[in-house]
Every structure is written in structure tokens, then in C-alpha cells.
Amino acid sequence: MPSNLDPDAALMLRVKQGDTAAFTELVEKYKQPVLNVVYRTLRDATEAEDLAQNVFVQVYKSASRYKSTAKFSTWLFTIARNLCLNEIRRRSRHPSESLDVPHPEQEDQPLRQFEDRKTFGPTETLLQRELERKVDAALADLPENQRTALLLCRQEELSYEEIAEVLGCSLSATKSLIHRGRETIKEKLKPYLQTGRWSGPD
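^ that's the sequence the OP posted. Answer follows.
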């Protein structure tokens, strides 16, 4: 096994050999990042958890065909994106079966975080959650490829080159997607940050 092999790819090669402990290690490392991306894409907690579990089912089922030609995280998030796109297509065919907005009891809850934040006081926590809701609303309004590019950009494991591979587009196109997405979100948040008023969807 090459000494410069991605450590997660090395774990996946062990999974390929039937090592369930290696699979558990990968799940523990990536279950929250995968859930974060899926949750912000689908905006439905129950469906996101089910689909995130399905991502790892697909990883396990595909173990025999796995080749360490790219970082494991690139391969993993490609599977996650493909399953999200399949679910979005299914929703478009059967819109009554899925909810595209959070349930009423979830509306005051911030979406799951990408990383642990520092501890805030009660007032700061309320303001932080409110801002997170606005960012999530702005993210949800972006085209799918811009939203996915931004979500993957926040994963420390992935470089721009790897995000481009997940999205199936060129490096320059990926950088453009991320730039346009960031600019759109900045413009949407600007009135809220300046005045406390929100012009986008709640």
C-alpha cells in the first residue's frame, strides 16, 4: 500500500477486504459532515437523516468496486450529491409526498452546524440562531450547483479541485460558482445586517 495514500482511502481499502471496524471509523468521521450537506440541500430533517444513512449504505455496497484514485471524501460527497439530486428529482415528480420547508415545530430551530461554535450568552445565542436561519434561507434560494459548491467548500477535507470533481465541472467553473454564491448571499444578508429587516424568504 503506497505510503502517501489518503488515510481515509486506506480505511476504505480495508473495508473492501471486509474490515467492518474500518467502516465504522469512516462513518463516525463523516456522518455529521454528510448529514450537514444533505440537510441543507433537502431542508427536511427526517428525509435528510434517512438519505445520509443511505449514503453510507451505498458506500458499503460499493466497497468491492472502490479504487483509491481520488480522496475518499471526494468519492463520498459525490455519492451524497447524486443521492440528493435523485431525491430532488423524485420530489419534482411527486411534490405532494415531500415537504420543501421545515415543519412548523422546526421553524425556530437552526439547521445543524458544520462546526462547533464558541459558547454564546443567551442574547448572543438568539442573535446567532437568527443569523443562521437567514443564511440557511439564502442558501436554500441558490441554484443547486451554487448551493452544493458552497456547502462542500465549508468542508475542510475538500479542496477546490476536489469540489470540481464532485460537481463534475471545471476548476474555473467551480470557483465561479462559489464566488457567485457568496456574492448572492452577501447581497441578501446586507439589508438584514444593516437594518435587521429581511428581504428574502423566511
